[in-house]
Amino acid sequence: MARKQAEIADRLRRMRWWRDARFGMFVHWGLYSQMGRHEWVMNRERIPRREYERYAATWKPQPRPMRQWARLARQAGMKYMVLTTKHHEGFCLWDSQATDYNAARCGPGRDLVREYVEACREFDLKIGLYYSLMDWHHPDGARCAADVAARRRFCAYTQTLVRELLTNYGRIDILWYDVPWPLKTPALWESAKMNAMVRRLQPHIIINNRSQLPEDFDTPEEQVAPQPAQDGRGWEACMTYNGSWGYMPSAIDWRSNREVLEMLRTCTAYDGNLLLNVGPKADGTVPEEARWRLSALGRWIDTHAEALYGPVTRVDTTQVEWMPTGSWSLKDAGCTAYFWCRHWPGNGELVLGGIRSKIRHIANVTRGLPVAFTQSGARTVLTGLPRRCPDPLAGVTIFKLVCDGKFRQVLGPGCVVLRDRARRS
Ligand code: GLC
Questions:
Q1: Atom 10 (ligand 1) nearest CA
Q2: CA 205 – ligand 1 centroid, Å
Q3: Alpha-carbon gap, residue 396 to 64, rounded angstroms
Q4: Residues near ligand 1 with C-beta < 6 Å?
C-alpha cells in the first residue's frame, strides 16, 4: 500500500511539467517520407524488404531541419516534441551499434536523433522519443512470435536499441512506444525488465502504455477520448493533421484551427494532452499547410494561454451542461470556469443558463477586458458584447468566470421544473 502511494506520488511529480504543458508536436519522419504514400507503405504495398532498403541509400535530408520543426512547435504553443526514432520500417534514425540500417551509416550519413535532441534543447522543448516495437525489417521481427530463440534475440536487440537511445543523448523526457506486434503479452516482450532499465537510465522519464504495461499515460489515437485518471496516470490524444502520420501530399483534409482548438479544449477540460502530428517531407521541411495553420494557432494560444496551460480542474460532467454556443473548462479547484465560445451569438449578449454559483467577475480573455453581466435566477447575461466575434483567428472567444466556490451549472431537458428549482435555491 505504502509502496503504491509512493509510486503514485513519484508519478505525479514526474508528470507535473507534462500536465502543465498540454500541447506537443509528434513528428513522423523516416524512409517512407521519400515515397509520400503514408508510413505504412511498406506493408500496405507489400514492398519487399530488399527493395525498400534502397530508400536508405537515397535519403538525403537537408542540414538540421529539426530546427525548423522546433521553431514552429514553439510558435504554435507546443511545449514538447516526440520523434519517430524507429518506425515500423525498422530504420534507425540514430547511429546505432546494433544495426547498419541506420541514418549515420546510410544515405543521411549523420545521427538525426542527435540533431533532433539538440534542436529541442535550443528551443527549450521537452524531448520525446518514439520507438516502434514492431519491426518489418529485422529478420526476427515476425519470426519471434513462433520461435523462442528468435524471440530472445529480438528482445535483446530491442533492449539494446532502447538502451542506446536513453544513454547517448543526455536527458530524455518521454519514451513513446508503439505497436507491440507480434508478441501478445508484456512478458513475451520482457516489458517490465526493459522499462526498469529505462527508469534506471532516466529516472524522471515518462513512459506511455504501448509496451503493453500501463506505465504513465494512455494514448487514445485519432480520437480525443478522455481516459480515467487512475493512480496519477495521464492521457494524451495523438492526432494526425491530415489523416496520415507520414508525409503524404495527397492527404488534403487538413484539420482546421477550429477543430484543433476543440481538441485542445477537450484536453484542457479533462486534464489530458494533445500530441498533434506533422509529417515532414523527406528533406525535412514541414508542409506549408501545417506551417501556416500552426503559426495562426500559436497566436490564438498566446492570447488564451491562461486557460490552456498549467494545472486544471478536471471537469465533472455533472457540474457543467452543454451549450449551443460553446463548452467549458475549469481551473482553481473548479472555482474558475472558462467558457470557450465557438458560436458567437452576435446580438450583443451571451446568455448562460442554469449557473448555480455566485459569479464575482467575468473577463473576456480574448480581448483582455472585463465584461458587464447580470445574474438573476437561472439566467446569467453577459452584456455589451461586440456584434462581431472578437477572435479573428479561429472564431473562438474565451470568457473567464470567477466564482465564489465551485462552479456549477444545472439545466437538464425540462424548462419549467428547473426554473422552479432554481428559484428555490
Ligand atoms: C499507429 C500506426 C503508426 C503511428 C501511430 C501513432 O499505431 O501504426 O503508423 O505511428 O499509430 O500513434
A1: 245
A2: 21
A3: 35
A4: 28, 39-40, 178-179, 221, 238, 245
In single-letter form, the type of residue at position 142 comes to A
Residue type, 215: E
The model's pLDDT over 153-193, given as tens digits with 9 standing for 90+, comes to: 999 999 999 999 999 999 999 999 999 999 999 999 999 99
Q: Kindly report, residue by residue over 236-265, the tens digit of the pLDDT.
A: 999 999 999 999 999 999 999 999 999 999
Nearest atom of ligand 1 to the alpha carbon of 132:
10
The sheet carrying 397-404 orders its strands as 326-331, 336-341, 397-404, 358-364, 369-370
Helix axes 257-269, 288-303, angle to 10 degrees: 50
* 257-275 core/surface letters (b: 16 or more CB in 10 A; e: else): beebbbbbbbbbbbbbbbb
The dihedral over CA atoms of 108, 28, 74, 64, expressed in degrees to the nearest 10, equals 0
Nearest of 360, 344, 319, 348 to residue 398 by alpha carbon: 344
Residue 373 φ/ψ, nearest 5 degrees: -155, 160
| For residue 186, cis peptide bond before it (omega within 30 degrees of 0) | no
| Grid coordinates belonging to 306 | 491562461
**CB-side exposure of 11: number of CA atoms within 13 Å?**
19
Asked whether the beta carbons of 42 and 136 are under 8 A apart, the reply is: yes
Q: Which residues contact 69 (CB under 8 A, 6 or more apart)?
A: 25, 27, 81, 119, 278, 280, 284, 286
- Return the percent helix, strand and coil in the chain, to nearest 5: 35, 20, 45
Domains and CATH numbers, the chain: 2-308 (3.20.20.80), 313-425 (2.60.40.1180)
All three cell numbers of 100, joined, read 547498419
Rounded to whole angstroms, the maximal C-alpha distance in the chain is 76
Please state whether the predicted TM-score (pTM) of the whole model is above 0.85. yes
Cα 396 to middle of ligand 1, angstroms: 30
CA of 194 to the centre of ligand 1 (A): 21
